[in-house]
Amino acid sequence: MRGEAVATERPWRADPLLVAGVVLIALQTGLRAVVVLRSYYWQDDYFHLSMYQRLGLSRDFLVREHNGHLEIGPNLVYALVGRDPGLSFLPAALCLLALQLTASCLLLAVLRQLFGRSPWLLVPFAAYLFSPLALTAGTWWAAGLEALPLQIAMLTALLGGIRAYRSRSWRWAAVSAVGTAAGLLCWEKAVLVLPALVAVLVLVEEAGTPWRRSLRRVAESWPFLLPHALLVAAYVPFYLSVVGPSTLDPDLGQVVPTTAETVFGMLLPGLFGGPWTAEGAANTVAADPGTLRAVLFAVLASGIVAVSIWLRGARAGKAWFLVAGYLAVDVALVQLTRAASLDIAARDPRYVTDALLVIAIGCSAAFSGPRRTPSAAPEQARPARAVAPAAAVGALLVASCLVTTSLVVGELQHERTRQFVDGVLATMDADPGVSVISSQPPGHVTVFIDFDLDDTLRALGQARTFDQPGTDMRMFDADAVLRPITLLEPIMRASGPIEGCGWALPTGEQPLGDVPIWFGLQVLRFTYDSPAEVTLHLAVGDDRQDLTVPPGSGQAMFVVTGQQGPVTVRASGAPAGTVCVADVVVGTPWPEGLTGGS
Questions:
Q1: What is the pTM of this model?
Q2: φ and ψ at 169, to 5 degrees?
C-alpha cells in the first residue's frame, strides 16, 4: 500500500508547477463564482434574448449582424438558455464560469508546453487569472461570450500548433485548426489566431534561433498552418456577406491621447492588479489610476522589461516584440472600429482581454531560456531555489488584484439593472389593470434604440401587458417608480369649434386632425365629458383602439407610436351629441415631476 501511495504521489511532487497552477485556478474559480453569481443580465443580453423570442432558433437568428459582429456561437448559446431564461442569472453565470475555467486550464497547459516547469511561470499566470481587467468579460454575459471563446480558441490553436510543429503531428495540427474554426464561429476577431500562432512559433518557440533561420523553419511547416489560412480565407467573404463592409472613420487627432489612456491608464495598472481605487469605474470602464499611479505602473513595467533584456538579451527582446505587436493590433482595432465612442472604449478592458494571454506568454518567454551570463546559469537553473521568491511575488500580485477587485466589483454586477427589472415586475403584478407605457428602459439596463420594456421583459420570459388605452396612463422612471405622464414636444394640437365642449360626437366618426410622420414614442390624449359610461373608438390612420370610460369628465389616452394619418373618434353607449371631446394633443410621454417634463 505504501508503495502504491508513493507511486501515486510522485507525479504530483515531480511537477509542482501543475499543482500550484491547479490551486490558483481553483482559487480563481471560487472567487469568480462569488462575483458572477451576484451579477445580472445587462445591455446586449436583453437584445439577444429578445431576438430569440422573436425569431426562434432560425438562420435569421443565428447568422446575423450585431453592432458589426458576427457571433454564431454566442447566438446558439443564447438560444439554448433563451428557451426559458427566467429571472435567475444562474445559467449565464455557470456558462461564464465554465468558459473561464476552460481558458485558464488551457493557458496553464500552453505555458508548461512552452516553458517547462519554472515556478516563475506562475507569476504571469496569476496576473492573467486575477487581473481586474478580466472582470468585465467574467461578469457580463455578452462580453464573456465573445472574449472567452476567443481565448479558448487561441489557446487551443497554440497548444495544438506547438505540438504539431515539434512532432510533425497531423493530429495536433487538426486540433489547432479546430481552435481557429471554433473561434471564427464565435467572433470575427479570431482572424488574429493565425498571426498569433505564427508569431509565437517564430518569437517564442524559436527564440534561441537567429531571425532568418527561425523564419525559414516556421515557413517550412506551412502544411500545418495551411488549414488556418484556408479557414480565414473562407470566413472573410462570408463575414462581409452578412455584416457588410463597414465605414472606418478614425479620429486621427485622438489616436495618441486615447492610446496612451488605454496603455497607461488601463492596461498597465490592471496587469499589476491596480489601480487600487474605484474612481471612474463604471460598468465596462476601468478605474482611473490618476497620474501618480499611472507613472508608478509605467516605471514598474519598464523595469521588468529592462531586467529581462539584461538577463536574457535578444530572447527577451523577441518576447516583448510579440507583446507589443499584438497589443498594437488590439489598440488599432479599437481606434478603427470604436472611433465614435473612444471616451469609453479607450478604457474598456473587454476590447483587450485576448491580449492578456499574449502578455502572459510574452512575459514568461522574456525570462525563460539561458542567461546571457553562462556562469550564472547552473545555480539559477535549480527550480527549488526559485520557489520561495516566485511564490512571494505571485502572492503580492494576487493580493494587489484582489484589492482592486473588491473596490470595483459592485460596478460590474449590474445590481441596479436587477433592481429595475424586479421593481417593474413587482409594480405591475401588484396592479395588473394599470395602463403602462412600454417606454425605453434606462441606460443602466440597455441603451438600444427601439428596444422597450416589453422587449426587455419578454427577453426574460416575463411578458406583461403594455400600451393599453386608459384614463390614467403611467410610465416607469429610471428607478422603476411608476409615475403619471405628461406630454412633451407636441406634434399635433387641436380644439373643437363648440365652446365648453370642443366636439359633440355624432353617431359616426368625428375627425379631430392629422398625426404627421414621427419616430419615437407618442401618446394621444384628449379630455372627454359623458353623461354615461361609453366606449370611445379612436382611429389613427389604419390603427383602431377602444377605451371604455366612466361617466363624467376625464382624460382618455392612447399610445399611437408609429401611427400617422387622420385622427377620428366616435362614442358608443350614449345618445349622439351628448359626449364631448376637447383639447386633443399628441406628444412624447414623460414621467411627471421629473426634469424635462412640463
A1: 0.90
A2: -100, 125
pLDDT tens for 266-276 read 999 999 999 99
Q: How far apart are CA 440 and CA 268, in angstroms?
A: 38
Q: Is the pLDDT of residue 1 over 80?
A: no
| Closest alpha carbon to 494 in 593, 567, 407 | 567
- Measured in degrees and rounded to the nearest 5, phi and psi for residue 518 equal -155, 140
List of E strands, 356-495: 474-476, 482-494
Contact yes or no for 349/274 (Cβ under 8 A): no
Question: Which residues 6+ apart lie within 8 Å of 8 measured at CB?
Answer: none
Residue with more model confidence, 572 or 10: 572
CA angle 418, 420, 424 (to 5 degrees): 120
What's the pLDDT band for 507 if we cut at 50, 70, 90? Answer: confident
With CA atoms as reference, report the closest residue to 584 among 490, 486, 489, 495.
495
For 226, residues 6+ apart whose C-beta sits below 8 A from its C-beta are none
The pLDDT confidence band at residue 400, using thresholds 50, 70 and 90, is: very high
259: its cell numbers:
492610446
C-alpha distance from residue 332 to each of 200, 260, 263, 315 (Å): 20, 12, 12, 26
48 CB neighbour count, 10 Å cutoff: 25
Is the confidence at residue 2, as pLDDT, over 50?
A: no
- What amino acid is encoded at 336 in this protein? L
Q: Where do the DSSP E strands lie in 235-347?
A: none
DSSP, collapsed to helix, strand or coil, labels residue 227 as: helix
